[in-house]
Amino acid sequence: MFTPAFRLFFGFTAAAVAAAAIYGVASGSAGETEYFGILNVEAWVGVLSLGYKGGIGDHVGYMVLMGFAVLSAMVAFFLVAFRDADAESVAELTDNGQIPAPQSKLEANYWPAIAAVGVGAMVFGLAVSPTIFVIGLVVLGAAIFEWMLAAWADRATADPDMNRYLRNRIMRPVEYPVTAALGIAVLVLAMSRVFLAVSKFSAVVVAGVVATVIFVIAVVFVVAPRISRSVIAGTVALACVGILVAGVITAAIGSREFHYLGPGAEHGEHSDDHGAGE
User: Which of 28, 143, 205, 273 has its CA 20 to 30 Å from the CA of residue 261?
Assistant: First the structure.
């Protein structure tokens, strides 16, 4: 009933939950007696109820361990649902109900590199900012999940096209909206840093130029339908990288100064603001 991979990751889940509970109790009363709070019933109630009743010690470490437990549980249930890539279970996802023999050669997988970036961001965030640490943790969790799913799909059949189809059928409904939302949010944040770093007039000019460039590129793509997808993807990628670079540079420069009049002034009036470099 339960596959070996399910038992492995479910064991990870149980171990992470136990570690989170002990850590949440011990870190909340490290300077007291009662064997680091182990005999404190109220602390155990707080930890087991996720803070709903009672308190938790170190919230960051507790949430990291609980997040690992949640990810392990998700992977475990995915594996048991697909029976560890069992051929008969995978065949149920195909149109004709048939599946080729498993393959031996695997395609290139770039998710380990992305997971390494997440680990680096977590280490950097520990010394600089908790926000960067959380971002690195999210990147690492997403990369590990995608990595495992890609490893499952690569070994599902002997046909790479079929493996890609199986993988996309599961992940594309999730990847497209999430990636689009994150991309829009990052681009909007980057453009806002640019607008805040320049003067009011320059912000209007920048907005007009960016809108014009986007419109011209869209018109060119429509008028010339023979442009390959690689050219379109490369153009969009270069534009996004340019906006991100501009956002990072202007964020480092800082926003312009806002000089507002006193309380007696009319509502909405303020003196001219200047750029960050003035």
Answer: 205
Tell me if 139 sits within 8 A of 121, measured CB to CB. yes
CB 153 within 8 A of CB 99: no
Which is it for the CA torsion 28, 34, 35, 38, positive or negative?
Answer: negative
- Evaluate whether 65 touches 16 at the Cβ level (below 8 Å): yes
| Model confidence pLDDT, tens digit, residues 28-77 | 654 444 544 555 666 677 777 776 566 677 777 788 888 888 988 988 88
Identify the CA nearest to 203 among candidates 148, 113, 272, 143.
Answer: 272
Q: For 138-169, how does the pLDDT look when each residue is reduced to its tens digit (9 = 90+)? A: 888 888 888 888 888 877 777 778 888 888 88
Report d(CA 54, CA 18) in Å as an integer: 18
Q: How far apart (Å, rounded) are the C-alpha atoms in residues 81 and 240?
A: 38
> By C-alpha distance, which of 51, 244, 59, 65 is closest to 141?
65
Q: Are 61 and 27 in contact (CB under 8 A)?
A: yes
Angle ∠(246,250,256) on CA atoms, nearest 5: 145
3-state secondary structure 208-252: HHHHHHHHHHHHHHHHCCCCCHHHHHHHHHHHHHHHHHHHHHHHH
Report the alpha-carbon distance of residue 135 to residue 100 in Å, rounded: 40
Query: Would you say the pTM of this structure is higher than 0.85?
Result: no
